[in-house]
Amino acid sequence: MAEFTRQRGKRQEDGGLGSVLDLLLANARLVLGVSGAAVLAIATLAVKRLIDRATSPRDEGDPKAEQKTLEESWQDLALIKATPKPPKKQRREDLSEPLLSPARPPAPGEAHEPRVCSAPPETPQVEFSPPRCLTLQEKLLSHYSSRLAVPEAQASLAPQLARSICAQLQNFLRIKCSELPFGSLFLSGPLLDGLGALAADHVHLMLPVVLDAALWSLIPGEDTVVRNPQYWMIKRTDLEYFPRGCSSWDRFIVGRYLSSNALNETLHKMLVASINWPAIGSLLGSVIYPVVASQELKLEVKHDQVELSITLFPVVEMEDKVLLAVPPEGLVENLWLESFYRAEVSKVKELDAGDAGARQHCLRILNGVCKSHPALHKLSGSPLTHVVLHLSATSLDWAEESLADRFQQVLEELVGYLEKGVLPSYFNHKINLFCELLEEEIDEMGFMLYRAISEPELLLKEK
């Protein structure tokens, strides 16, 4: 009885479903046309089969019946997939034309020309090329031209402004410190020498301290209290025959040595308290003020088109040495730092002129990368120049086409020097240019550069 009821209910459901499908197919011909009705009929038949199969009782345990059911399912699925797609409706190009144009019968005597359907124009195929990967050489040249080029207006205005300030400071020293034989002030730094300027924002102002060689002598760095060959002492000699006061610089003597710290303190007081910088700034169309808290002799200059930082360095030139009044940190105040900057610039330009090399390009990129990177900023300047000079003694190909190879080779050399913790000066191998770096700083720099050897692009990314 239950089975009968189930079969009856099934027949009623099938009858109801059949009536709905018949009504749908009958109206489909009017709405969709012959081809559309055929498509709908095939798809409806397939769906109906699937519904019948799902609602009919299974012959459990009969493998032949299960196999037949599976085959029929795949056939129905293939039937649905093979159903032709209805033709797309043609798009009306002109809305003024009627939707249906009745065919006009040919006039008597008029030949019936066959209607030719023009093929639709072929759509032009657009070839999509994959994005081009830039080589390291191209990335370096792009980085050089886009990020390291100083704007022309700033490149011309900054030195002009610095020279005007230099002239004003020179006049002040000649009037107020006429007893001190200062030499003529001159400008220096990467902006003028072209080895590492990222922007026209910093200039060095060199103030020569003229000494009488008969009254002063140099003490080598190895013999100083810090045992550092890069620092020198300037000793006052023959005090028995030429007592204190014979030299105008005797007022800066501390323990028979010319004190770089005492000279800096005197100049700092003059820059801060004695010079009328607001008046000079107004004359030059800018705002000038000394940096009071800095241990360096520094001026900040703000102009409408450029902001400039000027650092003043007292400099002594004796016995082919260039010594700056830059004592090391600590209690020692009589030491003078030997500078190789002038020799570095001269040597690099001399080598580039000899083989049309790209050392200056390479140094500007390296200095720009290190200066803008928080972990590498202490490598910029002199250490990089000395690495390039060391490398020039062994790698002779510095043409622009080899810029990428030399750039990567400099990174490898730097990692090697950092592993040892020693970078000897190109001009004096006794001097270790890494001697003032902390061990943690060396480890951080070495790790960063070690990664950059295999992926130099890391250093060229925006910070």
TrEMBL record:
<dbReference type="InterPro" id="IPR046906">
    <property type="entry name" value="Mab-21_HhH/H2TH-like"/>
</dbReference>
<dbReference type="InterPro" id="IPR024810">
    <property type="entry name" value="MAB21L/cGLR"/>
</dbReference>
<feature type="domain" description="Mab-21-like HhH/H2TH-like">
    <location>
        <begin position="359"/>
        <end position="445"/>
    </location>
</feature>
<keyword id="KW-0812">Transmembrane</keyword>
<dbReference type="InterPro" id="IPR045909">
    <property type="entry name" value="MID49/MID51"/>
</dbReference>
<dbReference type="InterPro" id="IPR049097">
    <property type="entry name" value="MID51-like_C"/>
</dbReference>
<keyword id="KW-1133">Transmembrane helix</keyword>
<dbReference type="GO" id="GO:0090141">
    <property type="term" value="P:positive regulation of mitochondrial fission"/>
</dbReference>
<feature type="region of interest" description="Disordered">
    <location>
        <begin position="78"/>
        <end position="129"/>
    </location>
</feature>
<dbReference type="Pfam" id="PF21297">
    <property type="entry name" value="MID51-like_C"/>
</dbReference>
<keyword id="KW-1000">Mitochondrion outer membrane</keyword>
<protein>
    <submittedName>
        <fullName>MID49 protein</fullName>
    </submittedName>
</protein>
<dbReference type="Pfam" id="PF20266">
    <property type="entry name" value="Mab-21_C"/>
</dbReference>
<dbReference type="GO" id="GO:0007005">
    <property type="term" value="P:mitochondrion organization"/>
</dbReference>
<feature type="domain" description="Mitochondrial dynamics protein MID51-like C-terminal">
    <location>
        <begin position="156"/>
        <end position="344"/>
    </location>
</feature>
<dbReference type="GO" id="GO:0005741">
    <property type="term" value="C:mitochondrial outer membrane"/>
</dbReference>
<keyword id="KW-0496">Mitochondrion</keyword>
<keyword id="KW-0472">Membrane</keyword>
